[in-house]
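Protocol step 4 of 6: structure prediction from sequence.
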Amino acid sequence: MLLQVVSQEKAKHISKCLELAILLEASANKPGNVNRTTNFESTYYEHFLASAVAIASSFECAAEQGVLVSRGKIHVGDVGLGRIIKNSVEDVNAWQQGGNTLLGTTILLSPIAVAAGMTSAKEHVFKIPKLRKNVKLVVESTTPEDAVNVYEAIKSANPGGLGMVPELDINDPVSINKIFKEKISLYSIFEIASKYDMICSEWVNNYPITFDVAYPCLIEQIRKTVDLNMAIIHTFLKILAEYPDTFVARKTGIERAREVSAMAKEVLKLGGLETSRGKKRLREFDHELRESSNLLNPGTTADIIAAALVLTVLSGYRP
């Protein structure tokens, strides 16, 4: 009984960490994104707040499954990661009317929630290297059932810029039969998509941008600026400058995405929020991203920042 209570407390703690990370990411005044001061035409800051609250129960479930794996009660392949992602999207849809708010974030964070449940923590502080090893184990153990559930989740979220792909297209009814017939795991599908989608690339390469670039940069910026909003914005700009946003690329083409990255790099070169010239260029950059019905919204970069914030909070940071 005591062990069960401890496990439940751990899962609740993990869920709170992820919920807080999403709220912090949504609240930062990142260029081109919905935030505290700027909305899109039909998607508002409040929609992200509602989404963060709605998704918390699914993250708690994910963490509970991870705890069961750590105790030898279930195999990691039986976690049901795809179902967790699907349930998350359904909960988000039920609690707000702003459309797709957290699909990419959900796909990135759900394996981290399971992995955190699998990882021992001293006084609720998680060791990042061990967490990362468990993330790798979680994503590599996914099943065809996980793949089908994620396909259904993506259809339900209805993200923008989802074009046709040559293999296992989400809108092709034949794809589902092929997944089951050939026993194609979610990990294998994301391997195919990793060539053109940053989130899928994170999955199959053990989150290199999240763990090796975004998280260390965010920690450094927090220590340097002692200003969480500034730290998040500078980290966002660094990731966007170095990695063209694939959400932008899907909607407007890779060349336009590279132009956006070049502009982010320019803002950083001018000092970002630490100089008057950098602030001025950041305001101009934000305006440029919001033109043309927000087609240049760097949504994938925001998802990476949410994941980096999760690692920051799990490792003990408190705002």
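Step 5 (inspection) to follow. Residues 2-314 form a domain with the Triphosphoribosyl-dephospho-CoA protein fold (CATH 1.10.4200.10).
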